[in-house]
Amino acid sequence: MTETVTAPETTESVAEFAARARAWLAENMPRIDPDNPPFSVRADQQSWDRAKELQQRLYAGGFAGICFPREYGGLGLDFAYQKAFNDECRCYEMPLILNTPSFTICAATILDVGSEQQKRDRISAAIRGDEILVQLLSEPSGGSDLAGVITRADRKDDKWIINGAKTWSTSAFAGDYGLMLARTDWTVPKHQGLTMFLVPLNAPGITMRRIKEVNGNEEFCEEFFDGLELGDDAVVGDVNDGWTVASRQLHHERRAVGGGSEFASGTGAENANEMPPDHVRLAELTGQGDDARVQDLAGRALVRRLVKKQLIDHVGAAIANGSLPPNAGTLIRLFHAETTELEVDTALAIAGTAGVVDEGGELAGMLDIGVRYLSRQTGSLGGGSSEMARNVIGERVLGFPREFAADRGVPFNEVKRGRS
Amino acid sequence: MTDLAANPEQLLFASTTRAFLDKEASLAHVRGLHDAGTSFESAWWQRAAELGWASLLVPEELGGGSVSGDGVADLALVAEQIGTSVAPGPLHPVSTVLAALTEAPEGHEDTIEALVSGELVASWAVYEPRRPLSLRDDAEITTTATPTDAGFRIDGVKDRVEAGAEAGALLVLARCDGALRQFVVPTDAAGVTVTAQESVDLVKRYARVEFDGVTVDASAAVGDAAQTPAILERQRQIALVLQCAEIVGILDAVLTMTNQWLTDRHSFGRPLASYQALKHRAADMKMWFEAARGTTAGAVAAVSARAADAPLLVSVAKAYVAERAPVMLQDCVQLHGGIGVTWEHDLHLYLRRVSLYRAMFGSPEDHHRAVYALSRKSDTSS
């Protein structure tokens, strides 16, 4: 396993780098209002085409892959340079949707455990803006039990033959390669018989379709594998050691969600829908700005949002100084879910009927609040449910006894499975 | 606190404070004081003052100073340590008075010195009977200060004055010539009547104070009318930061106690901590605790730096911490089972202090509205 943070290979100070970035950004990247970011939706192919184009500009200007090693197309600088760049690029259009999962999870994991060839090919193509990396992990038969995958990879001559299905793959339709977890040995306990593959998503034997969510969003995909053939060069890490690779992905995902990844470039909101509801504006617009009850409700949501920011800073500092374990990042994830629920509920309460019936005029946009409410739980489900997060906090942060697992230590082909 | 006690001086200060509290202000001491009907012993407070507790907000040229050079952070650290054993003492009233006097020290040097040494205890007389806390020039403040030839005559009634019966001086908020002013009034002045008010806490006491034609010298005034709003805001910030830091210490102690209980206690042949329903509640409380710590640290840093967003961040911290803490305390009682509602168990000592602080200096609901008002203002000004 290589270290993800490499020694800086520059004599340029952070301040000098920031000044050079400032000048370059002004010349080369489109200016935006960070409080009102341009419309970019992950479900649209054109958002990804645009992101690749912006990434290519960054690469041409020498500001792409700031914390990736130079031999794989990056700049080999430490996090301080990326943070300085993040401050500078706030008011410019950035390819933010490439951050997660492509850079912060997939490229970061390949850097940790991939083969030399995989690093040279895939990381550099992503940094150049030529390719996008995605994850194919969850399966229709199991939600939070990630290691219980039943997609199979069978050895046939010098090939691996893949059969099975994956689901909830973030932005997979836009991806060029996917990290795909499959079972290669059914005679050992579940974590020990897994292998991670790097799959070209345009290969024959893969059928992909979009999942439509209640709010109409079609960002997530499901994939069906029907005799997909892969060579040994597609194996990431070692055969039957796929859980190690998946664990690195989860580690990088937790860091990325908390805003702590050095591989993310730019930290703004991807689109207006990601921005928290503006409770003050909502109250004023509905004529309730002087209502004490509404002020209490809205003030509570405003407080929670600020506390979330403070918690991120606090947990980051506490993990860094060792007073909280690295798994404490899960506190942020759970707080984010809880805060999102409160923010969405509060917006709906203030909107009143305008959130569920299009009353037109000034209130016309408010139906979005009702639609957003319908998919409120996505923040408490995506990337592992809040219930799993509470287990992690209970067991890995507080050190409470682990949950009983009927499949622990049992060969996977003897573990009971559901009917579906 | 985790985020603040980063330097060796603060760590040493924290451990000295802890050792003193363990030796002279443990839960057993608190119960003993309560049984004896005593709020705190003045000799004990002087020993605490010798450790520097009353000097942290005071600049060196006025006889004060702090170990780290960041007096607000050091004061929050003391408050957090006090919280872990809900120690007695007039740290809050003395600190809020000093927060005012150090903003306009002219003529008050002797009072400051006496407060720093612990010889004098003073308190902030700011609430009025049956009225909510108000620091603005509105109808809620009816106590008056009338200019006389030699100074001022003060008339009115204040209440919920912490340690009012134990204090030698009060800082009184009054209306004077159409503006708010504050005055240092000795409690033994003619016309001052102090009546003790009990609180839900085991040792914290409050008082109702009547001012009936009390005359003071012109030098009793703290700052002028123009300075007063900023001084009041500074005092509000110090009061709220102290409450939040102390509650963080309380939560730290109570969660440690509860998680240990969940681990040790067995039912149906397994530790309580192995039940997912209980584990999840402990996980939520850990999250809320770290959030309380984070927002308190944010408020402390802003107040210390006199940042522009300090008024907002103290209200954010008080709103969050005081909303969550009572819920957490009651949940800890529930997780302890029947023992949690006994006098013998220590949980109620903590629950008492948290309930007290939830209401004093603004409830979470009051602070939600304050945050709304501040957000609304920044919205229209941009």
From TrEMBL, chain A:
<dbReference type="InterPro" id="IPR009075">
    <property type="entry name" value="AcylCo_DH/oxidase_C"/>
</dbReference>
<dbReference type="InterPro" id="IPR037069">
    <property type="entry name" value="AcylCoA_DH/ox_N_sf"/>
</dbReference>
<dbReference type="Pfam" id="PF02771">
    <property type="entry name" value="Acyl-CoA_dh_N"/>
</dbReference>
<feature type="domain" description="Acyl-CoA oxidase/dehydrogenase middle">
    <location>
        <begin position="137"/>
        <end position="224"/>
    </location>
</feature>
<keyword id="KW-0274">FAD</keyword>
<dbReference type="Pfam" id="PF02770">
    <property type="entry name" value="Acyl-CoA_dh_M"/>
</dbReference>
<dbReference type="GO" id="GO:0016627">
    <property type="term" value="F:oxidoreductase activity, acting on the CH-CH group of donors"/>
</dbReference>
<dbReference type="InterPro" id="IPR036250">
    <property type="entry name" value="AcylCo_DH-like_C"/>
</dbReference>
<keyword id="KW-0560">Oxidoreductase</keyword>
<dbReference type="Pfam" id="PF00441">
    <property type="entry name" value="Acyl-CoA_dh_1"/>
</dbReference>
<keyword id="KW-0285">Flavoprotein</keyword>
<feature type="domain" description="Acyl-CoA dehydrogenase/oxidase N-terminal">
    <location>
        <begin position="42"/>
        <end position="129"/>
    </location>
</feature>
<dbReference type="InterPro" id="IPR013786">
    <property type="entry name" value="AcylCoA_DH/ox_N"/>
</dbReference>
<dbReference type="InterPro" id="IPR006091">
    <property type="entry name" value="Acyl-CoA_Oxase/DH_mid-dom"/>
</dbReference>
<protein>
    <submittedName>
        <fullName>Acyl-CoA dehydrogenase</fullName>
        <ecNumber>1.3.99.-</ecNumber>
    </submittedName>
</protein>
<dbReference type="GO" id="GO:0005886">
    <property type="term" value="C:plasma membrane"/>
</dbReference>
<feature type="domain" description="Acyl-CoA dehydrogenase/oxidase C-terminal">
    <location>
        <begin position="240"/>
        <end position="398"/>
    </location>
</feature>
<dbReference type="InterPro" id="IPR009100">
    <property type="entry name" value="AcylCoA_DH/oxidase_NM_dom_sf"/>
</dbReference>
<dbReference type="GO" id="GO:0050660">
    <property type="term" value="F:flavin adenine dinucleotide binding"/>
</dbReference>
<dbReference type="InterPro" id="IPR046373">
    <property type="entry name" value="Acyl-CoA_Oxase/DH_mid-dom_sf"/>
</dbReference>
<dbReference type="InterPro" id="IPR052161">
    <property type="entry name" value="Mycobact_Acyl-CoA_DH"/>
</dbReference>
<comment type="similarity">
    <text>Belongs to the acyl-CoA dehydrogenase family.</text>
</comment>
TrEMBL record, chain B:
<dbReference type="InterPro" id="IPR009100">
    <property type="entry name" value="AcylCoA_DH/oxidase_NM_dom_sf"/>
</dbReference>
<dbReference type="InterPro" id="IPR036250">
    <property type="entry name" value="AcylCo_DH-like_C"/>
</dbReference>
<dbReference type="InterPro" id="IPR009075">
    <property type="entry name" value="AcylCo_DH/oxidase_C"/>
</dbReference>
<dbReference type="GO" id="GO:0003995">
    <property type="term" value="F:acyl-CoA dehydrogenase activity"/>
</dbReference>
<dbReference type="InterPro" id="IPR013786">
    <property type="entry name" value="AcylCoA_DH/ox_N"/>
</dbReference>
<keyword id="KW-0274">FAD</keyword>
<dbReference type="GO" id="GO:0050660">
    <property type="term" value="F:flavin adenine dinucleotide binding"/>
</dbReference>
<dbReference type="InterPro" id="IPR046373">
    <property type="entry name" value="Acyl-CoA_Oxase/DH_mid-dom_sf"/>
</dbReference>
<feature type="domain" description="Acyl-CoA dehydrogenase/oxidase C-terminal">
    <location>
        <begin position="243"/>
        <end position="366"/>
    </location>
</feature>
<dbReference type="InterPro" id="IPR037069">
    <property type="entry name" value="AcylCoA_DH/ox_N_sf"/>
</dbReference>
<protein>
    <submittedName>
        <fullName>Acyl-CoA dehydrogenase domain-containing protein</fullName>
        <ecNumber>1.3.99.-</ecNumber>
    </submittedName>
</protein>
<feature type="domain" description="Acyl-CoA dehydrogenase/oxidase N-terminal">
    <location>
        <begin position="8"/>
        <end position="97"/>
    </location>
</feature>
<keyword id="KW-0560">Oxidoreductase</keyword>
<dbReference type="Pfam" id="PF02771">
    <property type="entry name" value="Acyl-CoA_dh_N"/>
</dbReference>
<keyword id="KW-0285">Flavoprotein</keyword>
<comment type="similarity">
    <text>Belongs to the acyl-CoA dehydrogenase family.</text>
</comment>
<dbReference type="Pfam" id="PF00441">
    <property type="entry name" value="Acyl-CoA_dh_1"/>
</dbReference>
